[in-house]
């Protein structure tokens, strides 16, 4: 049974919306939100200075639980890509495959706002939930 949520950057991008913030707040308090190296790299790439980078990294380490990448994550991502095939996988980025593979490897639910995770779930056991209606753009 899944008890943790791998918080994709697409969901974080909507955290300014009242309904999304209301959903994320109790999850943060409960300590059930996770991150992984690809999500940390994306978030930390926005830091404007070395000091901001250090601060953001410390904040992420304090707020989220972290799960590692290992050889199994890479193999799962390659397997997902292979199953998707050329036509289905057109809208699925390599980072989406890595996030999905990480969630599968660590038995986490991907909390997101990107249609790629539904596509990946179509060829795998991926458990995922959009943080808001996917027809909502922001």
UniProtKB/TrEMBL annotation:
SUPFAM superfamilies named among the record's database cross-references: PIN domain-like
Cofactor annotation: Mg(2+)
Coiled coil: none
Signal peptide positions (record): none
One Pfam assignment: PIN
Keywords: Hydrolase, Magnesium, Metal-binding, Nuclease, Toxin-antitoxin system
Domain PIN: 6-112
Keyword Transcription regulation recorded: no
Family indicated by similarity: Belongs to the PINc/VapC protein family.
Name the UniProt record assigns to this protein: Nucleic acid-binding protein
């Amino acid at each position: 049974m899944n008890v943790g949520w791998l918080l994709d950057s697409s969901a974080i991008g909507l955290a300014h919306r009242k309904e999304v913030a209301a959903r994320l707040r109790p999850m943060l308090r409960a300590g059930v939100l996770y991150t992984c190296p690809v999500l940390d790299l994306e978030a930390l790439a926005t830091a404007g200075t070395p000091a901001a980078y250090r601060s953001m990294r410390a904040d992420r380490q304090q707020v989220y639980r972290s799960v590692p990448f290992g050889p199994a994550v890479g193999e799962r991502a390659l397997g997902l890509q292979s199953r998707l095939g050329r036509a289905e996988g057109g809208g699925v980025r390599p980072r989406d495959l890595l996030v999905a593979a990480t969630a599968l490897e660590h038995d986490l639910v991907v909390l997101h706002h990107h249609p790629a995770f539904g596509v990946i779930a179509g060829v795998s056991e991926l458990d995922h939930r959009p943080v808001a209606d996917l027809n909502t753009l922001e």
